[in-house]
Design brief:
Number of strands: 8
Shape: extended
Radius of gyration: 31 Å
Structural class: alpha+beta
Strand order of the largest sheet: 1-2
Order of helices and strands: HHHEEEEEHEEHEHHH
Oligomer: single chain
Distance between the termini: 100 Å
Length: 275
């Protein structure tokens, strides 16, 4: 005789099915939440790492890789700054969290002679020796970055007289100078254009702050971003100090056979013979 499930059994089966469904939905939601959170954290990490390449650090900061390892995010340099120039990176700033930085267009470095932000650093992330000359602090040798000029938007390159960045520079006549060039368009006026000297610029950003264009046409970038690199294989023959590098250079022999006769024949031949 066939047996049929009673009401109690059917009720238990229904509850078990609903419970399993709820668990499945909860597990799916939990998995989706973890995935989304992981994606958010990864995205934030990528943004911070990318942004750190363009982050301007306080005077005396060691190279960025070592700086991030050495800085303990104590904020003492930020507290020591009398102009509120330095900021501590917080979530959403797209900077390595807790590390000090500054935005020249908002508040530049005002080049304090006593550089109060550097001596208070407890770990050496801000190296006092790198801003010291003859045993005394020297803000003029700081290397926070390098000013770069956008010639397309700088109105001085349009022929409009402006020397705001030149006048704002604390190392007047050294870090930024003004060049005089003939204005071929008018034939009777001169271009007075700014020129940044990389060997003297400290990256303080006072020029960027002073720029009169809506978006600054002169701006500070980390030096390793702003400058190229020629490579050690190029020698300045007119520079005796640089030419000395040839004395220690090792000879490199090529495996390619070079025939002087073939080279001369090629140079003296008609252009058709070269194709």
């Amino acid at each position: 005789m066939a047996s049929y499930p009673n009401e109690d059994h059917l009720y238990e089966m229904k509850n078990k099915t609903q419970s399993d469904r709820r668990k499945f939905i909860l597990n799916m939601a939990r998995g989706a939440g973890i995935t989304a959170l992981g994606g958010f954290i990864w995205s934030a990490y990528v943004d911070e790492v990318t942004a750190s390449q363009l982050t301007l650090r306080p005077p005396g900061a060691i190279n960025e890789v070592d700086f991030l390892k050495t800085c303990i995010k104590c904020g003492l340099c930020v507290e020591a700054c009398p102009y509120d120039t330095l900021l501590l990176a917080k979530p959403g700033d797209n900077k390595p969290l807790g590390t000090p930085y500054f935005i020249p267009r908002d508040i530049p470095c005002y080049m304090c002679p006593d550089i109060p932000c550097v001596p208070v650093c407890p770990t050496g992330a801000l190296d006092e020796q790198s801003v010291t000359t003859d045993g005394k602090l020297d803000i003029n040798i700081a290397d926070m970055g390098l000013a770069v000029i956008d010639r397309e938007t700088c109105i001085a390159f349009w022929g409009i007289q402006c020397d705001a960045c030149y006048r704002a520079c604390p190392i007047l006549g050294h870090a930024i100078t003004v060049e005089y060039n003939k204005n071929e368009r008018t034939g009777k006026h001169a271009y007075l254009t700014p020129l940044v000297h990389a060997d003297a610029c400290t990256g303080c950003g006072l020029c960027e702050k002073a720029c009169v264009t809506e978006k600054a046409s002169i701006f500070v970038l980390p030096r390793e971003v702003a400058m190229g690199e020629a490579g050690s294989y190029y020698i300045k023959g007119w520079d005796k100090a640089d030419e000395k590098r040839l004395e220690d250079a090792s000879e490199i022999k090529t495996t390619t056979e070079i025939s002087k006769e073939t080279a001369m024949d090629s140079l003296n031949s008609d252009s058709e013979d070269l194709y």
